[in-house]
Amino acid sequence: NRMALERMRTIDVVLFDKTGTLTKGEPAVTGVVAVDGVTTDELLALAAAVESDSEHPVARAIITAAQQTGYPAVAASGFESMTGRGVQATVNGTKAAVGGPALLAELGASEPAGITDTTTSRKERGASILHVIRNGAVIGAVALEDEVREESRQAIAALQNRGIKVAMITGDARQVATAVAAELHIDEVFAEVLPQDKDQKVAELQARGMKVAMVGDGVNDAPALARAEVGIAIGAGTDVAMESAGVVLAGNDPRAVLSMVDLSQASYRKMWQNLIWATGYNIISVPLAAGVLAFAGIVLSPAAGAVLMSLSTIVVALNAQLLRRLKLNPADVH
């Protein structure tokens, strides 16, 4: 979108969605802890059964980890996704659920003291903790970690070097978000944000007088992408996100945001150069063609005026073509 490209040069803050944008979006199970009387294999099998009908990357990670244990698969029915909280299903006639802090709060459940030490240490290193709940009681937890993209570090450092703030938004627990933000030196973090509230965080930044570029890839990011001054969809994201954004990146490299800034600034410079040339040409040639200096013997003939008009058009077009020399390879950002 032309206006999105023009606004990009004025952006004060870039708000990145965490999962799949700053991180690889491919979480893996790195730890399992269960209460007494429940084995870790049994816990993983139950979690995998509940997640079996989900297409979320977290669900695939849990199912993969459960398959690797060799524990018999368990069937589930009545699958239900609770947006921003978790999933639930019926397993062997028992209600079971898998989710994060929001789900615990909704169910009024608490983490057993026996597993708190383990989950706390995992959170401190940036892992996401999903609790497994059976019959309303927490019977264990699964730790998942999503690797930060190396490109994200470069993109954030380059943006900050240009005086642009960087913020991150995520539905993950605050400890997880804080750990990732500290690793990437992010200026501001919005954690434990429900999908329907993401656009409100964009509005909050705008209320402070900031112009916001939002970068996301999921269905849940669409309202925030639409609200921001510039919505940027990762090319590997969902169709809904791409429809809501003003700019779609062909790939999933966050450094391409810097390329957008460069292109926006370069296009603006070309616009002014061409405007100054065209204005200067008219200020000089139009009065001459009208005979302002005829008394001094200086007259611009219609034929010469036509040639100069064509020449002006050619100069403007050639100057615009110089934009092709602009290097927009994300790997070259600095």
Question: How would you describe this structure to a colleague?
Answer:
This protein is an alpha/beta fold and 334 residues long. It has 13 helices and 12 strands. It has helices at residues 2-7, 18-22, 40-51, 57-69, 101-107, 113-124, 150-161, 174-184, 198-207, 222-227, 239-244, 256-289, 302-321, and strands at residues 13-17, 28-34, 76-82, 86-91, 94-99, 128-134, 137-145, 165-169, 188-190, 212-216, 230-233, 247-248. Strands 9-8-1-10-11-12 form a 6-stranded parallel sheet, sandwiched between helices. The chain is elongated, with a radius of gyration of 28 Å.
H-E string = HEHEHHEEEHHEEHEHEHEHEHEHH
At the third CATH level, what is the topology name of the largest domain?
Answer: Rossmann fold
CATH class wording of the largest domain: Alpha Beta
| Annotation field: number of helices | 13
Helix amount? 40-55%
Layout of helices and strands:
Elements: H1 2-7, E1 13-17, H2 18-22, E2 28-34, H3 40-51, H4 57-69, E3 76-82, E4 86-91, E5 94-99, H5 101-107, H6 113-124, E6 128-134, E7 137-145, H7 150-161, E8 165-169, H8 174-184, E9 188-190, H9 198-207, E10 212-216, H10 222-227, E11 230-233, H11 239-244, E12 247-248, H12 256-289, H13 302-321
Parallel strand pairs: 1-8, 1-10, 8-9, 10-11, 11-12
Antiparallel strand pairs: 2-7, 3-4, 4-5, 5-6, 6-7
Helix pairs in contact: 3-4, 12-13
